[in-house]
Design brief:
Number of helices: 8
Helix content: 40-55%
CATH topology of the largest domain: Multidrug-efflux Transporter Regulator, Chain: A, Domain 2
CATH class of the largest domain: Mainly Alpha
Distance between the termini: 66 Å
Number of domains: 2
Order of helices and strands: HHHEEHHHHH
CATH architecture of the largest domain: Orthogonal Bundle
Radius of gyration: 23 Å
Structural class: mainly alpha
Length: 155
């Protein structure tokens, strides 16, 4: 019974700051961005669900991975408001992120493997560019570093 009561206990902004490592002002910012939605007690103080610790931790990780606040907000919108998300809720959200993360991983690997050679940008300033992208064939597929962002070079 006690553990059920604990899961319903609301936390102060200071307690959330201590648990997440975020400053109080950062938590207020994330609230203003709609990433967490604390309730106010009779004294007007914010009170957070314990699950908001996980939401904010998720936000920190997603930002470190290069996701924008808008992207994170859209993804978090799939989680329920006013109750602790279940494992099923988080699993659904993680599936959404997996595809984006895999695309980023693939691009990072292409960049790692090709950055010192021809990247399909059309500069033709390196002798390798003449071999991998003669007469700027990559341009037919679009602008920019085609071999890293999109298309593998033709062998």
């Amino acid at each position: 019974m006690k553990s059920g009561r604990r899961s319903q206990q609301r936390l102060s902004i200071g307690e959330v700051a201590e648990r997440t490592g975020l400053s109080v002002s950062a938590i207020r910012f994330y609230e203003s961005e709609g990433l967490v939605s604390p309730v106010r007690n009779r004294g007007g103080q914010r009170r957070f669900l314990r699950s908001d610790i996980r939401r904010l931790s998720f936000v920190l990780i997603a930002q470190q991975l290069g996701f924008s606040i808008d992207e994170i907000r859209r993804r978090l919108a799939s989680l329920p408001d006013g109750r602790t998300p279940t494992k099923r809720d988080w699993t659904r959200l993680s599936r959404q992120f997996r595809e984006s993360l895999q695309q980023r991983i693939d691009m990072l690997e292409r960049m790692r493997d090709r950055l010192d050679g021809c990247i399909g940008c059309g500069c033709l300033s390196l002798s390798n560019c003449e071999l991998y992208n003669p007469e700027d064939r990559a341009h037919a597929s679009g602008a920019g570093p085609r071999y890293i962002l999109h298309d593998p070079p033709a062998d």
